[in-house]
Amino acid sequence: MTDENLSEIGYLKLREVLELIPVSKSTWFRGIQSGKYPKPVKIGIRASAWRKSDIRACIEELNADSKISAV
After folding, report:
1. In this predicted model, what pLDDT tens digit does every residue of 1-26 receive, in sequence order?
2. Which pTM was predicted?
3. Domain ranges of the chain
4. Hey, which residues does 51 pair with through a beta bridge?
5. Beta carbons of 41 and 50 less than 8 angstroms apart
6. What does the alpha-carbon distance between residue 37 and residue 35 come to, in Å, rounded to a whole number?
């Protein structure tokens, strides 16, 4: 999965999200609780996913934060 796939409208499952934002599952879910990462949306009775637009915005914010930290 590449950032190019994020230009499309749709949803990503957790596995796909973690390919783009390489953190552990536990770190990801702690980040959701703290507000650092976006919350999932229910797409079925037992299934959740993340909007591609939310993940794209999250990546942009993380990149901006890393640039600020490097200065």
Report:
1. 555 556 678 999 999 999 999 999 99
2. 0.82
3. 3-70
4. 11
5. yes
6. 6
